Amino acid sequence: MRPRALVLWVLLACAGLIAFQTGSLAHLILWISHFMQSVTREHLPMPYTEPPPPEVWRTLGPAERLASVRSRLMPKLPDELASKQLTLGQPAFIRIFKESRELELWMKAADHQWKLFRNYPIATFSGTLGPKTREGDLQAPEGFYSVTQKQLNPASSYHLSFNVGYPNAYDLHHQRTGSFIMVHGDTVSIGCFAMTDPLIEEIYLIVEAALKTNPTVPIHIFPFRMHASRMKKAEFDGDHDHLSFWREIEPAYHMFEGTRRVPPITVENGSYHIH
């Protein structure tokens, strides 16, 4: 076992012991979730030189970090994109599925068709299925968000990151609280989506380039792939606390699946309207 992985397991064990002793159910659930995700974590090999070790990375300023990423990725990233008939700077769209721990990165090609560039395994997301509702609930959100340039954070404590935009107008209407929900590097998460350092570098460069020519990168976060059989399972399992919300976001999943069109989404009177 690599030293960093061993340290993570020790920290998880300590967190579990503390949660058990303090009687904090939320922290105990978080510990169990992180432990299981660390056991089942998938590895996606990348065709680039590995990032510098964390102790070196932490000494770099934002400009130095981005220069490092570009020097290691740009010799090969254009070819990776070209293999899918894509180029850097085209519009981007992200879909996240919590249950299967997947982050899909789609890009709009020259023919105006959305194409899946890559499906990345999420190293760790925080909490369980269901939306984030308050600060400190240790939940990763669900719903419809977007990234703008000002949400990019090359100075992140978690290698690189970008803010998903929680809380959005829907969350604010329902008095949901919380902040600084990120897609970032590393393998630990409290409310965020941790992608590992090598994966976030490629994701970050593509999102950054898309934002140079487009105002936003939409992010749709779902509890699972919302096909009929999985929704029926949720009903059978008695997930009644979340079912009405999941039915509200379900049409956006089916619209993109059926038409490969990212639907415009507005919030009206506290409800999502999918156009």
Observed structural traits:
275 residues; alpha+beta; 2 domains; 12 strands; globular
Structural description of this entry:
With 275 residues, this protein is an alpha+beta fold. It folds into 2 domains: 1-40; 47-274, Beta Barrel (L,D-transpeptidase catalytic domain-like). It is 39% helix and 19% strand. The chain has 9 helices and 12 strands. The strands form 3 sheets. It has a 5-stranded mixed beta sheet with strand order 3-2-1-10-5, with helices on both faces. A 5-stranded mixed beta sheet has the order 4-9-8-7-6. Strands 11-12 form a two-stranded antiparallel sheet. β2 (102-108) and β3 (114-121) form a beta hairpin. α1 packs antiparallel against α2. The chain is globular, with a radius of gyration of 19 Å.
Briefly summarize what is shown.
With 275 residues, the protein is of the alpha+beta class.
CATH topology of the largest domain: L,D-transpeptidase catalytic domain-like
Tally of strands? 12
Largest sheet: number of strands, sense, barrel closure: 5 strands, mixed
CATH architectural group of the largest domain: Beta Barrel
Shape designation: globular
Residue share in helix: 25-40%
